[in-house]
């Protein structure tokens, strides 16, 4: 049974011999009704506050969910970026190794070519010297024949 302040304020009691003083009962019931009205207002205020807090809680839970999703997405993106950076680093390392191998091949080829040129120059020098020696010897022989005549 719900009891409102109006029910309390206008409650009637049967009277008997030597019953309660009506004015005192009315005053007390009015005071009880006022307290009840205050409690009802406070209850309504608290219900409104509770509703607002529940809405805020729901909003915060939704924001928390969004934040968790953002953190998960950020972690996934970070893993993907790291993996991509590792792939790029490996590719750069392979390219550097290939470039190093190419430079070494070119240097070896240049060294071989220079050695061949050096050997050819030695051979040409030796040939020149032997031909020059032979020419000089020929001149010396001719000179010796001319002197000996």
TrEMBL record:
Keywords: Cell cycle, Cell division, Coiled coil, Cytoplasm. The keyword Cell division applies. Residues 29-131 form a coiled coil. It comes from the Bacteria. It is found in: Cytoplasm. One of its GO terms (biological process) is cell division. Signal peptide: none annotated. Belongs to the DivIVA family. This is Cell division initiation protein DivIVA. The lineage of its organism: Bacteria, Thermotogati, Deinococcota, Deinococci, Thermales.
């Amino acid at each position: 049974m719900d009891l409102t302040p109006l029910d309390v304020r206008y409650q009637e009691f049967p009277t008997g011999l030597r019953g309660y003083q009506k004015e005192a009962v009315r005053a007390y019931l009015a005071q009880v009704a006022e307290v009840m009205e205050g409690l009802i207002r406070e209850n309504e205020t608290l219900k409104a506050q509770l509703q607002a807090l529940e809405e805020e809680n729901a909003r915060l839970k939704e924001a928390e969910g969004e934040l968790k999703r953002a953190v998960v997405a950020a972690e996934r993106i970070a893993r993907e970026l790291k993996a991509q950076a590792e792939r790029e680093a490996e590719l750069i390392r392979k390219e550097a190794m290939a470039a190093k191998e190419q430079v070494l091949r070119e240097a070896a080829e240049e060294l071989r070519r220079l050695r061949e040129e050096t050997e050819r120059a030695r051979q040409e020098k030796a040939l020149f010297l032997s031909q020059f020696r032979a020419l000089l010897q020929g001149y010396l022989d001719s000179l010796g024949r001319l002197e000996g005549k």
